[in-house]
Write a structure and sequence with these properties.
8-stranded mixed sheet, 25 strands, about 500 residues, about 30% helix, alpha+beta, elongated, Spore Coat Polysaccharide Biosynthesis Protein SpsA, Chain A, binds zinc ion, Beta Polymerase, domain 2
Length: about 500
């Protein structure tokens, strides 16, 4: 009974510390807790330490392991290659070095960290250089208590004694390929912390349910994945464990090498998990997607459905940004050359809906009067020579290979583009010579829609559109399309 009372006090302390006492009923949390209470005489939890984020050229793994060996927990060191120089580890049944690259001598099971972790029920993720004192079983008990009260809390961060860990929230927007760090509403329960100087405890299930538990760098990789699943951490402010850390990379050269390696690992991490835009709390934005010097982010589009749609994602933000830039460039030039142009197809639909590109669209379509090709310096040059032109800003103007229309590409390597379709009037009907049979909206239409052209705000500039946009879109796509846009080949998405 005494234990139950003490634990109740403990839970109350947690409530006070975390601000969870705003929740309507303390008692329900207590009841949940009492059910999961494992009393003194139940057997201790099987524990394992995992160390996987260290540098070959300078590390403290051997001493870290020595310190951890004095506890009851097993130790697994994971590396994606055989560390060089080799780690000076003493042979022990409770310490395993797992290298996940290919070895002729080891079985596939032996190269998988899960093989060594699956026997444990709780896992401590350890940064290099850590020294721990305190009861690991009490640490686990703390995690059980808090997650009994709030099931979204799946991890405890035990900070190094000398530091004040800062809590942040993380918006993992996979659909938009975007990570956004935000100030946390609570300074003790949140999605991510801002340092590497802590030990992270979670259940084995939490860890192994992640798609890539051992991606580096330490903690960033884990927290992106846990936040994606709506799981949070609590910072241990009670000092259940006392944690120290050995300083590493104090020498200038190694500090530089470490920083460079971290940068490469961040690249790899974002690439693996599919994030191209990172928004930091201070407003800084990091872009990891395509730019003028790289390829486009996605392959040739088949059946109007880019590959990312099948992954439940929209057009990468770098691509949308590049499309907007290309389109503004084309609009500016056509305006100055008095080329009569208008938004067509999905681009007009996006303009009418939100003034922007439809989030899953992958190019921009505009129509022009065929007669006005002669007003356009670049188009008339291509018309006469058939040879592509790279303009002063690096955009590539060319004749499309698929038919009688033109294309402006973002750059020579990045083929995000604006398609330009020349139309001519035949007895008051606008027509052209190349048609896409699978595109319902690719049809002739009355010239009256272009007499006069109107202006609409699109991607931050005023651009030409047919008059009576709604009637034009209803005519081309079917009635009501502005309210109900569909994926081009929606039936293909299960
Ligand atoms: Zn891109």
């Amino acid at each position: 009974m005494l234990i139950v009372v003490m634990l109740a006090v403990n839970v109350y302390v947690i409530f006070r510390l975390t601000g969870l006492d705003e929740s309507p009923c303390l008692c329900s949390g207590f009841k949940q807790f009492a059910v999961t209470d494992d009393s003194e005489n139940s057997s201790p939890h099987k524990l394992v330490f995992v160390v996987w984020d260290f540098e070959d050229f300078e590390n403290d793994v051997s001493d870290t392991v020595k310190n951890l060996s004095s506890t009851e927990a097993g130790i697994v060191i994971i590396s994606d290659h055989s560390p060089y120089p080799p780690l000076p580890l003493r042979n022990s049944d409770s310490v395993h070095l797992v290298t996940t690259d290919t070895h002729l001598s080891s079985s596939v099971a032996e190269s998988r960290p899960e093989f060594y972790i699956s026997g444990a029920s709780y896992v401590f993720l350890i940064p290099d250089g850590i020294r721990i004192t305190g009861s690991l079983q009490n640490a686990v008990k703390f995690l059980q208590e808090v997650s009994a009260v709030d099931q979204t809390i799946a991890m405890v961060a035990f900070p190094v004694d000398t530091i004040n860990l800062l809590c942040f929230d993380l918006n993992v927007d996979a659909k938009r390929w975007t990570l956004e760090y935000k100030s946390a509403e609570n300074d003790t329960v949140c999605d991510v912390v801002d340092s590497k100087e802590f030990v992270l405890l979670m259940s084995k299930e939490t860890l192994l349910n992640l798609s890539s538990p051992f991606l580096r760098p330490f903690s960033n990789a884990v927290f992106i994945q846990t936040a994606y699943h709506g799981l949070r951490l609590i910072i241990d402010r009670q000092k259940i464990l006392s944690i120290h850390i050995t300083s590493l990379y104090e020498g200038g050269h190694n500090r530089w090498k470490h920083r460079e390696a971290e940068q490469r690992r961040f690249h790899h991490l974002y690439d693996k998990l599919g994030f191209k835009l990172i928004k930091h709390v201070n407003g800084r934005q990091e872009w990891y997607g395509c730019n003028k010097d790289t390829d486009r982010c996605f392959d040739t589009v088949i059946d109007d459905m880019p590959q990312y749609i099948y992954q439940g994602r929209w057009t990468p933000p770098c691509c949308l940004r590049a499309l907007r830039e290309t389109a503004r460039h084309v609009f500016r030039i056509f305006e100055s050359e008095h080329v009569r142009y208008w938004l067509e197809g999905g681009s007009l639909l996006g303009a009418a809906r939100t003034g922007d590109i439809i989030p899953w669209d992958y190019d921009i379509d505009i129509g022009i009067y065929q007669d006005d090709i002669s007003h356009s310096k670049h188009l008339s040059q291509i018309y006469h020579t058939g040879i592509a032109v790279v303009d002063n800003d690096g955009f590539v103007w060319e004749k499309a290979t698929e038919g009688d229309f033109y294309r402006v590409q973002y750059s020579q390597s990045n083929h995000l583009h604006v398609d330009i379709f020349p139309f001519y009037s035949r007895n008051g009907t606008m027509t052209k010579d190349t048609w896409f049979k699978s595109h319902r909206q690719d049809t002739e239409f009355p010239e009256s829609f272009l007499q006069p052209l109107e202006k609409i705000s699109f991607i931050g500039v005023n651009v030409s559109v047919p008059n009576n946009v709604r009637a034009f879109l209803d005519f081309k796509f079917g009635v009501g399309v502005i309210e109900n846009p569909r994926l081009p080949n929606a039936n293909a998405v299960l």
